[in-house]
Amino acid sequence: MTASSTSLSAPVARPSRRGAGSRTGTTARAASTSLRARDRSGYLFVAPFAVATGLFLVWPTIYGLWMSFTDQSLTATASSFIGFDNYAEAFSDPQVWTTLWHTVWFTILSTVPLIVVALVMALLVHTGLPGQWVWRMSFFAPYLLTSAVVSSLASWLFQPEIGLLDVWLAKLGLGPVGWLTDENVAMFSIAFVTVWWTVGFNFLLYLAALQGIPQQQYEAATIDGAGGWRRLFSITLPQLKTITGVIVVLQLLASLKVFDQIYLLTAGGPNGSTRPILEYVYDMGFTNYRLGYASAISYVFFALILVFTLVRLLPTKKEA
Amino acid sequence: MAVETLPRSLSAAAAGRRSAAQQARAENRTLTRLTIGPSPWVRAAALGALVVMAVLWLLPLAWGAVTSFKHEAEAALPASWWPAQGWTLDAYRQVLGNSELLGWMWNSLVVAVLVTALTVLISAMAAFAFSQTVFKGRGLLQFLTVASIMMPGQILIVPLFKQMQAMGLVDTFAGIVLPQVVAPVMVFILKRFFDAIPGELLDAARIDGAGTWRLFWTIVLPLSKSILVAVAIFVFIGAWNNFLWPFIVTTDPQFMTLPVGLSTVKNAYGVQYAQNMASAMIAALPLLVVFMLFQRRIVQGVATTGMGGQ
Fold this sequence. Notes:
Order of helices and strands of chain B: HHHHHHHHHHHHHHHHH
Number of helices of chain B: 17
Number of helices of chain A: 15
CATH class of the largest domain in chain A: Mainly Alpha
Structural class of chain B: mainly alpha
Helix content of chain B: over 70%
Shape of chain B: flat
Low-confidence stretches of chain A: 1-32
Low-confidence stretches of chain B: 1-7
Mean pLDDT of chain B: 84
Number of domains of chain A: 2
CATH topology of the largest domain in chain A: MetI-like fold
Helix content of chain A: over 70%
Structural class of chain A: mainly alpha
Oligomer: heterodimer
Number of strands of chain B: 0
Order of helices and strands of chain A: HHHHHHHHHHHHHHH
CATH topology of the largest domain in chain B: MetI-like fold
Shape of chain A: globular
């Protein structure tokens, strides 16, 4: 679809751009392009989006960068330029590195099951077994919940002694687990909740990809005598390579931005052992009122995400 | 275009008179034969795995629902699935009577509808301009749009809040909505769709004297209904559930959206588990019902837009 649509528009678009400036009269050959070229209202159509982007994306980006070089506070209106002081402080602040590690650790813990479980779900549903509606509903429903509802449900399940999980463990003779209160367990619990909550999204992406595999390939393989497992490993999985690459990147970027469920479930505790870097930014800015320093931490984090994104983009360019 | 990649819709159209449900069932049988083959054991195993996973995934919701119908005193006792003291709507009565829950729900609806309408409108207009008109600086603007996809909004909470303060938009609907309408990914997705609309079609209308706004409104938009619905669904779910930005920009309970409001009462209720679960259920219900009604559309919408146009 990409290839066909670009080849459709590209040859039309290129000559018309030149035609817009030089040719004013209507020549028969370029009738259609000059019609488009004389259409001057493109500006007006792009204006609302451009203004909104300028105001709420570009300007805060620049403003935040400037702020990161000042001692701006939430309460004061005046601030002064302090050069790289905030950045120097950020690089030597152990909390920056600790919270950054928590974010990365959460990303590692959540991404693998979020891909694998989603794939298993999609493969199972794609068998066409009865109950399609129920399966799709069950796996995707949690994704429709807001983070506050998810954390209410989860903290109820994780409730010490009376929560469902501890009650079940007690029946097996196992002691209560500090799901959200034990420093060694809390991040695993959060990752577990996150998988339950958002795996439905990746599941749908995989399902759509599976439905795009031409059935003739399966027909042909069946005629050739390939069994179920053989078809899975020789047809299905190889065809999912591209989409898996995309889902992995989308998932990594999503997991790196974790904030909601951690803030609502543990508020970064116990003992700050789950606090992600975005929460540190929030705490610095809105609890300690140090907007300048909070901005500097944001930009350090942003630089890391950007490097990651660009590194990931390079090889795909070469392939294409 | 991408919406139609689901083969089911194509072959369903070709099926002629047979009912859609029959058709779907026949296709599912074909699919079963082609993927896991005819062995009843393999089918039973796959079905068993599906049942186990579905039960696991619905369990937290079911547990929350059961708790919400218990008496408060019983809810705090160690878990039992069947309430010994009988079912009750007490928790719902308490929550709906005492809290601002319905107000927050209304705020969420207003915010989500405004965000969706504005995002779809300005993104479609920009995508149309990039795709079907020519103007100076188009290439540069398009490049900037693609580049801004990489900018994660979460990074901007600090400067954006300061900016909102300066603009006097803290604790206003405008302050919650406006920063959320910037969705460069959606522009990109829509542009790719608009690119496939044949230029001759639009030129014919231009020759007939239709203005650009008419072209956009009466030709481009109606031709793109499926992708517009997909984008709208995606944006709506995101806006309805968005927590971080509304949380930052509202301090007055009067303007809180549902996710933000809920997060503030959690502590206020303390150990009122039944009430906690009742408000969670009420908050979860609208999107779950909408999903049940429009499942196929939503599944397609999320699948098409979720990839971010990749």
